[in-house]
Amino acid sequence: MAITLYDNDSGAAIGDISESDLEFLIDNLEEETSDDRDYYLRPETVAMLEEREASAALVTLLRTALGEREGIEIRWQRG
To answer: Whole-model pTM?
Structure first.
């Protein structure tokens, strides 16, 4: 089953990630509730994930989604 990341502002799909990438995000980012599927990312957040050995594919996907913005809110959804 695919796991897709979405840009919360536009609703556009960012791309698909693996189950291990999702587990990495869940383990390394703050969730407000147990069923939270949203994350706010800044360039510093992506750098921190890279330092913690996120997969190259995940880091590239998140950096591309951020582009030149100061931050982005993303959500994940199983499809």
So the answer is: 0.90
